[in-house]
Amino acid sequence: MHSRTLFLVSVLVSYTRARQVNITVDASKILDDLPPVARFFGADEPNYATYPDGRVLLGQLGDLGPHQTYFRTHNLLTTCDPLNDTSPHRLKWGCTNAYTEDTNGQAIYNFTIIDTIFDAYLENGVKPYVQTGFMPKALSSHPDPYSFDFDGTSDVSNIFTGWSNPPTSFQKWGELIYQWAKHCLERYGEAEVESWYWEVWNEPNIAYWNGTQEQYFTLYDHAVNGVLRALPSATVGGPEVAGGASGDWLGLFLDHTLNGQNDATGDKGSPLDFISFHAKGSPTFVNATDSVPGHLQMNMASALQNVNDAFSVIQSFETLNHLPVFIGEDDPDSCAACLSANVDYRNGLIYPSYTAAAFTREIDLAENYSVNLTGALTWAFEFDNHPYFDGFRVLATNQIDKPILNVFRMFGKMQTKRLEAQSTGQYDLDSVVSSSVRGDSDVGILASISDEGDKMAMLVWNYHDDALPKPDAQISFTISNGFASHQVVNLTHYRIDQSHSNAYSTWLALGLPQDPTPKQVADLKAAGMLQMLHPPTQMKLEDGMADIQFDLPIHAVSLLVVEQ
């Protein structure tokens, strides 16, 4: 037989041979509280929250529970284009007309559109993670051009128009934020607004802010002062820098909040209740030629290195490192509203398995640095009136939930305490941070137990950076020291794979319909919900020990819930 043929046969055989992985969970060994980080979401386009599909998806996010879901969005202060924005549903754009001026330069405040956005959140059990941005046209120091059109493939650098510039008056900017916070207080009440997070701008270290670093510090001072003048008990923070620590950017900001002169008050330092930064992966195509596109390869290490760098800086500030920390955008790639050749992962299984593996490593990094990681925010929502499964980074398409949404449903079922767990197939933390997942697949475990000890929830994934066939993992799962005095417990096994919790594979099987029948829509909606691998079963315990056997395909995710 030809040597190349032998090679191909050996590869195919290796892909069909299951890989044995042993997982152990000790229910008596509680490590710490498990932070419910997977309950934060966001998008560039604020107005979609008020659209039919947006309201439906907000309801899904509000139901993730039991912990509160939050939503962060750009463009809450952006000025509408009177020629284009009667229905502002463009990519990477949104507007509210919150601030305009009369012919004498006097401020006109109008929070009507913002109210409809926040009302949509709250009506669906979601709270605002309020971003104070972007610059209203009447306040922009260089307002023209201001509006833009973006189709998902055009040059993203062209979007950074007049809304990204510093204000003509920082005092007017601060007064705008004060009037907005005061309005929210009057509309929603002190207890409600106290439960929100208020942050200043977005990624001021790159083109989203066309001012200097010092000007951003001034922007921050005046915005925070405006919020706190309205509600002294509000929770304020930032700076939402791109790229983790972004060199010395994050450190200089934190030093400013401690030691810099506050431009709004003249005092030393500036209030800071939480710290935020962004982390992004970097997918590419590998082994590509002129005639062969190659295959998609994710890069989890890129995002984890951002996190590692930021945590290192935060840890070094002894008076601040206890504060809540948010990864304010935490994603496998950079641009949710961009279409390109490397976004195939967004519809299928790679996205949820990446998220399960990455979020767990971020929790591990926070533990290593003694950092108070409170949220990892997924920058993905939905776009109304777009084709089904068009490749944008969204959670749902035309009210059909993508597989990615189901991993958040799994996280929502995790319990309050983290348990010690081991997997013979799991990469150690340092390896993933330095080199991502490029050898065998990463078969990992995140285990939890309730405060009362009567319920365990265990997340298991089979992840690899390569969008290629890989062996199934044959899991031998052992629980020890669980459920004292009980001989039988209930097991519910949830699964995301090609045939479970996967509307995308169902849509492919239906022939990729862009005008599905009512029956097909119903089937797609059902396929998009979190599903069980098999009906709930009872499981025998012997001296607090139980064994579970199952196969886990590549890029599949399981959640095992065991309870009395």
Provide the fold topology.
Elements: H1 3-16, E1 19-33, E2 40-43, H2 52-62, E3 69-73, E4 99-101, E5 107-109, H3 112-123, E6 126-132, H4 170-188, H5 190-194, E7 197-200, H6 213-230, E8 235-241, H7 249-259, E9 274-280, E10 284-286, E11 295-297, H8 300-315, E12 324-331, H9 350-369, E13 372-379, E14 396-397, E15 400-401, H10 403-412, E16 417-423, H11 429-435, E17 442-449, E18 455-463, E19 473-480, E20 488-496, H12 503-509, H13 518-527, E21 531-532, E22 537-540, E23 546-552, E24 557-563
Parallel strand pairs: 1-19, 2-3, 2-13, 3-6, 6-7, 7-8, 8-9, 9-12, 12-13
Antiparallel strand pairs: 1-16, 4-5, 10-11, 14-15, 16-17, 17-18, 18-24, 19-23, 20-21, 20-22, 20-24
Helix pairs in contact: 4-6, 8-9, 8-11, 9-10, 12-13
Active site: 203 (proton donor)
Domain Glycosyl hydrolases family 39 N-terminal catalytic: 97-527
InterPro entries: GH, GH39_cat, Glyco_hydro_39, Glycosyl_Hydrolase_39
